[in-house]
Amino acid sequence: MLYYLFICSDFSWRRRFYLKAIKHKPRFGDAYNNLASTYAQLGQINDAIETYQMALVIDSKLVDAHCNLGNLFKAQGRRDTARKCYLEAIRLNPEFAIAWSNLAGMFKDEGQLSTAIAYYREAIRLCPPFADVYSNLGSAMQDQGNLLEANMCYQTAIQLRPDFAVAYGNLGSSLLASGDAMRAMDALRYAIQLEPNFPDAYDNLGSALKVLRQPLSLDTAPAGAHKERAKFKVHDHEPIACFRKALRLKSDHINAYSNLACALHDRGLVREAIHCSVTAARLMPLFAPAHVNLGSLLRGVGQLDQALAHYHQAIALDPSFAEAHTNLGNTYYELRQLV
Question: Alpha helix (H) ranges present in the chain?
Answer without folding.
Answer: 2-24, 29-41, 45-58, 63-75, 79-92, 97-109, 113-126, 131-143, 147-160, 165-177, 181-194, 199-212, 225-229, 237-249, 254-266, 270-283, 288-300, 304-317, 322-338
